[in-house]
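Q: what sequence does this backbone want?
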């Protein structure tokens, strides 16, 4: 196999749309408006239209988006925020950075997303927000979560950093995109994302006019009027070069998603008979954009399978090897091994295969055949 694939092939994707990208970058270089240039406002408008949200506030990265969302809702010391321990650290990191306490509920073993049935028992008088994570490109079950939040007067902040373009269908048949469902949606434009820039970037989404104004101010040093600071804020801006690149890639986003889904379809078909694997669950209420194609390896064989792939020059990744509640930085929360058994077991079982827009049938065939040939 000479045409091996990386986990994410950003170079081939760039080459596919190189003339458009290069022209967009040149426009910014010619303008020299490197911060808050015209492309930023254009991207915010275009991304809002794509997501069906009234406002998009761009920022420096997904972590800043989560932090700004918490700050805008007035969440800080003495408050509690419910989220999951099976996620990238930024979800919990943002809660800690504003001085609030992360409170964990476990995830579902099939979808990897928040176990909604566990949420109500985690609510206390100190609970101010819930952050569901739409992990790997599939939405958490939002309708029952919104009902719980409304009953208890709690805000919902969506961590949609891995789910741009994913659609959630409500029981009444209405459809909303990930990030447009709660009070605030947060996303990331890290290069490997489904919509990724050529560096860091992020955005917040909301339909609330007052909240949008506050979020925009918080991301600009807490300032609505220059040099007049209404809030304690962040210095978190999407630079003009990244906005120009994202404006180009946004036009291709649906075709990028289709390419990922086609690759996932190949994986499902080729690996469906491998009885020591459990493939990603599909749910009726959410589409899947496959930011990652993450399966579970049964019988404690995950690390052996990963080594087998590596020996055959196939990359794979473990997202995530340690749940947040067992990370050294969060020992002060007092969690113990066994507190969230599903998350802990997933950290031992999950394995992500190469997933990107440039996967060829030859590459997919080689990856799948190598897995099938794993010596048990």
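A:
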């Amino acid at each position: 196999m000479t045409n091996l694939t990386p986990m994410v092939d950003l170079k081939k994707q760039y080459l596919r749309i190189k003339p458009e990208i290069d022209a967009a970058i040149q426009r910014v270089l010619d303008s020299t408006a490197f911060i808050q240039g015209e492309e930023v406002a254009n991207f915010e408008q275009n991304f809002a239209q794509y997501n069906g949200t009234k406002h998009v506030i761009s920022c420096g990265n997904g972590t800043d988006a989560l932090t700004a969302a918490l700050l805008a809702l007035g969440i800080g010391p003495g408050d509690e925020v419910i989220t999951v321990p099976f996620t990238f650290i930024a979800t919990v990191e943002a809660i800690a950075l504003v001085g609030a306490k992360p409170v964990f509920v476990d995830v579902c073993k099939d979808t990897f997303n928040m176990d909604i049935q566990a949420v109500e028992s985690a609510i206390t008088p100190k609970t101010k927000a819930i952050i569901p994570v739409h992990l790997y490109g599939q939405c958490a079950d939002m309708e029952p979560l919104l009902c719980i939040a409304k009953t208890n007067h709690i805000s919902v902040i969506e961590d949609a950093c891995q789910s741009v373009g994913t659609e959630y269908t409500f029981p009444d048949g209405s459809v909303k995109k990930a990030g447009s469902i709660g009070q605030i949606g947060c996303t990331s434009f890290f290069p490997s994302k489904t919509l990724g820039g050529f560096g860091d970037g992020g955005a917040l989404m909301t339909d609330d006019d007052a909240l949008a104004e506050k979020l925009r101010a918080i991301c600009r040093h807490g300032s609505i009027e220059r040099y007049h600071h209404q809030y304690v804020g962040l210095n978190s801006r999407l630079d003009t070069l990244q906005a120009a690149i994202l404006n180009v890639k946004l036009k291709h986003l649906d075709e990028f998603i289709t390419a990922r889904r086609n690759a996932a379809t190949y994986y499902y078909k080729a690996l469906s008979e491998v009885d020591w694997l459990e493939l990603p669950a599909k749910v009726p209420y959410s589409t899947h954009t496959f930011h990652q194609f993450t399966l579970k390896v049964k019988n404690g064989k995950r690390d052996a399978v990963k080594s087998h792939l590596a020996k055959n020059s196939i990359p794979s990744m473990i997202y995530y090897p340690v749940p947040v509640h067992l990370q050294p930085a969060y020992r002060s929360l007092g969690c113990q091994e066994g507190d969230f058994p599903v998350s802990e077991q997933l950290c031992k079982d999950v394995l992500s295969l190469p997933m990107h827009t440039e996967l060829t049938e030859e590459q997919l065939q080689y990856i799948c055949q190598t897995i099938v040939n794993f010596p048990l």
